[in-house]
């Protein structure tokens, strides 16, 4: 199977937990504290994957320059795009409860755009990871899968509270999952002959975008609904992902 096709399937698999989370939101009414805890745990898992599987690996292959440049560009790009989407009604796209009722009439499109913005860097990471010849990192895939699950759960709860139909919610997340698979496929197809310097820069760009996304959208959701356990759960997620990255290839 071509690498680009493998990358697309891995990207689709990583994003599939968005649908699983959305399905759980419609089948079971979870306490707000549990969804916030899942989000906090997902933050820790994703931070670990960004640190060791993106930044550290890129640094070891190509040095400091592509890491610094890529991370700054990725963070700035996400910040600007997130500001545009938030100004159009997508600021609470990862929030549950009553937050999404504050979205404007055009907020549905902004929510879709925001979810796409969050998922693309993660998926590109999976696609580019295959180009190193060692296959997909289990730790990175697990981090993306685990962090996507509470995103889909929390957002679907919010959209349900805002009166959006199941067809809208599951159609949206199916579209985002397909786009994520396409992003992984495209990343692998376009960067097949790239140098270690360029690959490190792309990984760092995704890392900068992901860290900014964690700070701007995931952590606020986690802190908003719990009673002081956010730091503990983030640490637990970090350690689980760190351990996973050292017991798997």
How are the secondary structure elements laid out?
Layout: H1 3-27, H2 32-62, H3 64-90, H4 107-129, H5 138-161, H6 166-190, H7 196-224, H8 230-247
How would you describe this protein?
- This protein is mostly helical.
- It contains 8 helices and no strands.
- The longest helix has 31 residues, at 32-62.
- The model is unreliable at 100-108 (pLDDT under 50).
What's a quick, concise take on this entry?
By secondary structure, the chain is mostly helical.
**Unreliable runs, pLDDT <50, ≥5 residues?**
100-108
> Strand share of the residues?
under 5%
Q: Main beta sheet: strand number and arrangement?
A: none
Order of helices and strands: HHHHHHHH
User: Termini, distance in Å?
Assistant: 21 Å
Total of DSSP H or I helical runs spanning 4+ residues: 8
Number of strands: 0
Query: What is the overall silhouette?
Result: globular
What is the residue-averaged pLDDT?
79
Residues in helix, %: over 70%
Tags for this entry?
81% helix, 8 helices, 249 residues, mainly alpha
């Amino acid at each position: 199977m071509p690498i680009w096709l493998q990358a697309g399937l891995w990207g689709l698999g990583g994003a599939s937990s968005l649908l699983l989370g959305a399905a759980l939101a419609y089948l079971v009414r979870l306490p707000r504290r549990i969804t916030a805890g899942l989000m906090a745990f997902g933050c820790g898992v994703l931070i670990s994957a960004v640190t060791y599987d993106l930044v550290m690996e890129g640094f070891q292959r190509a040095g400091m320059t592509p890491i610094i440049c890529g991370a700054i560009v990725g963070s700035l790009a996400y910040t600007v795009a997130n500001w545009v989407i938030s100004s159009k009604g997508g600021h609470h796209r990862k929030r549950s409860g009553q937050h999404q009722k504050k979205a404007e009439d055009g907020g549905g499109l902004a929510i879709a755009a925001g979810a796409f913005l969050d998922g693309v860097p993660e998926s590109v990471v999976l696609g580019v990871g295959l180009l190193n010849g060692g296959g997909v990192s289990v730790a990175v895939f697990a981090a993306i899968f685990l962090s996507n699950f509470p995103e889909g759960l929390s957002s679907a709860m919010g959209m349900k509270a805002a009166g959006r139909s199941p067809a809208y919610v599951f159609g949206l997340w199916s579209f985002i999952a397909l786009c994520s698979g396409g992003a992984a496929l495209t990343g692998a197809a376009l960067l097949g002959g790239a140098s270690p310097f360029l690959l490190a820069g792309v990984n760092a760009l995704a890392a900068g975008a992901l860290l900014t996304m964690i700070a701007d959208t995931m952590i606020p959701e986690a802190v908003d609904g719990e009673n002081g356990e956010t730091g503990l759960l983030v640490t637990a997620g970090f350690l689980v992902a760190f351990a996973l990255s050292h017991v798997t290839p």
